[in-house]
Structure of Ig-like domain-containing protein:
Amino acid sequence: MNCRIILLWLFTNRLKGISECFSTIIRENYDGSRIEAENKLNRAEGVSDHIVPYWDQPFSQPYFDNTTKREYTTTVGQTAHLHCRVRNLGDRAVSWIRKRDLHILTVGIQTYTNDQRFMSLHTDGSDEWTLKITSSQTRDSGVYECQVSTEPKISQAFKLNVVVSKAKIIGNPELHIKSGSDINLTCVVLQTPDPPSFIYWYRGGDVINYSQRGGINVVTEKQTKTSRLLISRATPEDSGNYTCSPSSSDAASVLVHVLQGETPAAMQHSATVRIGTIDFTLLILFLCFVFVR
Ligand SMILES: *[C@@H]1O[C@H](CO)[C@@H](O)[C@H](O)[C@H]1NC(C)=O
Ligand SMILES: *[C@@H]1O[C@H](CO)[C@@H](O)[C@H](O)[C@H]1NC(C)=O
Ligand SMILES: *[C@@H]1O[C@H](CO)[C@@H](O)[C@H](O)[C@H]1NC(C)=O
Ligand SMILES: *[C@@H]1O[C@H](CO)[C@@H](O)[C@H](O)[C@H]1NC(C)=O
């Protein structure tokens, strides 16, 4: 049938729509041109007919390895690494974006921010793109996106928590101990994903020197993140402000009063005398790496 005849027929019958005519064209040209006609029809109907080139089709599209860790916790001052793994990357670029302000931190292995603490780590041939953040701050907490420059872009979100780690000395902030008994202080590091690499003990402003006086024992356990300071047969001269200071954590202190006899007055007198006669040259650094495994 000729289309013009149909149109005439449609016009005279005043019943059918123009789309029926298109359908007829398709039916009449049921060969290679059918698809084109269908596309034209779709366009006429406002349907987009984006033809996806074969290299952009799903089988060769980049995709994220969903098995990687997506949430990280670190302590203030530590270095954080966010690992993004992209398969089938091809020649596209991987960027790291800070979600909070949509700041582009890195593109490929280039850093795009003035904050040089951010860095992209990548080994040629690997599919891992790591965002490295040195000396993490609490303000670095938040979401970071690993983004691939496909059209449209694909991204994977990573959450970073930067926590302030604190030390705590178990018991009262002030201890009264009778002369001759032991000073036994236990320090625990709280809110830290990693064990501290060391824990220092101070009395006053100085690291405790255990060669200055016998009977001092320190046991630091990495696994339990604790350190125990034991000073046996305490004398009033051992009184003072004891501080436990782990690496990458806020310190904790306790005031220790060693009582000579029973009266607090005597204790205070002794403490004053001790502070007045303390020989600072006798204080050394010690115990940093005493670890029990
Ligand atoms: C990875 O996860 C995203 C979102 O959860 C999903 O859309 C995508 O299909 C997943 N990819 C694979 C390879 O499993
Ligand atoms: C020190 O105190 C802890 C508990 O805080 C206790 O387990 C430990 O046995 C004590 N050590 C000594 C030598 O008293
Ligand atoms: C004990 O020492 C620490 C660290 O030097 C200090 O922050 C704290 O204020 C001191 N405590 C007292 C009661 O002096
Ligand atoms: C620690 O004490 C010992 C013994 O009193 C002393 O010989 C040494 O010099 C002291 N070390 C420091 C660094 O003060």
